[in-house]
Design brief:
The protein is mostly helical. The chain has one domain (3-292). Helices cover 81% and strands 0% of the residues. The protein has helices at residues 3-33, 37-64, 76-91, 94-120, 123-150, 153-161, 167-199, 204-217, 226-238, 241-255, 268-276, 279-292. The two termini are 24 Å apart.
Length: 293
């Protein structure tokens, strides 16, 4: 590799280790939040998976650090974002936790990992990534399964009958969420979008990952959940020319992602098809998409 590419690749794998450890912390919070003993066991295995992925990423970073051009540390935006994100998942509702985790897994699995693997074009990396992708496919399948539960009438009734949370807990939750919104934009820019610009300059995989998220958010039941409706309201506002002219930059800053993935990425036909599909079928199609891209 050129010096520029070697430095970039080693940094990306260093950051990937941090992302995987963040994912482990998020799955640990999900394990804590769910009541079903089988799901608790499943999320426990996911925590183990993510720590194993982090170790593999560190070894890959060391493997590609051929010339020792500089010392590498995790991106500071990732470091700053991590504790706020974990706190937000801890104090906010389980459905919000699952929304963020599903989005992160789709970006990681459909876009970032495969693009980075193609970029280095190395057999050893290919073997490691195949094993990591196998684990990530299991994670995404469960993410969609949980999304189906949060879209159900049973969950809506449970939320309606639940007692109000103490004020102190609500303040902690909204403070953590405010910090997530504040730190999300630089985190996504430096840890996801910039690496993707180098490893997948066409942007096909990134658009595919975000299209899957958008389609999931249109599913009946899920589209009525408060957090999903909040995100949809912001996206609809951004895609309205008048609202975008006055509030476009603010909307981009709140959501934290770049304008290119805030546009509607699916067709009406794809939306109708998604509505008719089960959540399991949508998960299967999302997993197939990473190979199709």
């Amino acid at each position: 590799m050129s010096k520029e590419h070697e430095v970039a690749v080693v940094q990306y794998f260093t950051d990937m280790a941090g992302i995987e450890r963040l994912a482990a912390a998020l799955f640990e919070e999900q394990r804590r939040l769910v009541e079903d003993p089988t799901l608790k066991k499943i999320f426990s295995t996911f925590v183990v998976d993510e720590h194993r992925h982090a170790s593999a990423a560190e070894r890959l970073a060391a493997h590609y650090d051929v010339h020792r051009y500089r010392a590498y540390e995790m991106n500071p935006h990732l470091v700053r974002f991590t504790p706020h994100f974990v706190n937000a998942i801890r104090f906010l509702s389980a459905e919000i936790a699952n929304t963020y985790i599903t989005c992160g897994e789709l970006i990681l699995d459909v876009a970032l990992l495969r693009s980075l693997n193609d970029f280095v074009n190395d057999g050893m990396s290919e073997q490691a990534m195949n094993l990591i992708n196998r684990d990530e496919s299991r994670h995404i399948a469960i993410d969609f399964h949980m999304a189906e539960y949060y879209a159900s009438e049973a969950y809506a009734r449970r939320c309606a009958s639940a007692p109000a949370r103490p004020l102190r807990e609500r303040v902690k939750a909204w403070w953590a969420f405010a910090n997530v919104l504040y730190h999300a934009a630089p985190f996504f820019k430096h840890v996801f979008f910039e690496p993707m610009d180098l490893t997948d300059p066409t942007g096909r995989r990134l658009r595919e990952a975000f299209k899957r998220m958008q389609l999931l958010g249109t599913k009946p039941g899920l589209d009525q959940r408060p957090f999903v409706r909040f995100l949809q309201l912001l996206q609809d506002g951004y895609n309205h020319p008048v609202v975008r002219a006055f509030l476009g930059r603010l909307i981009v800053r709140i959501i934290g992602v770049e304008p290119r993935v805030l546009e509607i990425l699916y067709t009406e036909r794809e939306a109708h098809r998604a509505h008719a599909m089960s959540f399991d079928e949508m998960a299967e199609e999302a997993l197939l998409a990473k190979y199709a891209c």
